[in-house]
Amino acid sequence: AYARIRAARGSTAHFKHSERRLPSRDLLQRMMSKTFVAALLLLAAPAALGRSWTPQDSTSSALKVRGGGPIKDFLSTYDGWVTKKPLLTKACTSLVGFAAGDLLAQLALEKAEKLDVRRFLRMASFGFLLHGTTGHYFYNFLDGKIPGAAPLEVASKVAIDQTLWAPIFMCMFFTYGGLFDGKPDSIVAKIKQDTFTAVKGSWITWIPAHTVNFAFVPSEKRILFINAVQIGFNCFMSILGNKKA
Fold first, then answer.
1. What does the record say about its membrane topology (predicted)?
2. What is the number of helices (H) and of strands (E) in the chain?
């Protein structure tokens, strides 16, 4: 009888231990939603760029133009700009992406009655002066060191981007905001308070987005693709950047 009681207790304890290890329903829902977002990006990005995508070993030959229309015309024009003046073109691309993201954040999400012009200029100028320029050099460096678009190369680039570049970028973003607003004393507190939140948001958005980016988008169009996705992410960054430390 004593042995049966011990066995029963052991089974109950094992069941409780196993039950504790089961993922929560909320966690499963979050995982499913992130998987859905990743799948949606994989399906929607080719249509958004007006391209027919076929995985290749080289990102430079991964995209082939299909059909015509305004998207093709824009991409052809952009090709000319980015070939002649790559740094300026990418800086202007990021200016538009950050400006659009802030406008969307202020007027659509926060429903501000009046546009905060200073905040708008802070975001737009950051895109022009820092995001487009640093992105140009960083992604060229990354593609030079890890060429190709095979799964291992893509995973390596995503890992480097999100574990090394993302925290550096967020610190750069908050530092620029503090200097632009004339509040250098608040920079350290802002970095300590919001960097991890910003990086977590980056992981949710940019791990699936950069999987598409590094697998299919040529190096010279990375900033264009990033800013197409970043308009939504910049809403988050605009709101977070405007929060007081």
1. Multi-pass membrane protein
2. 10, 2
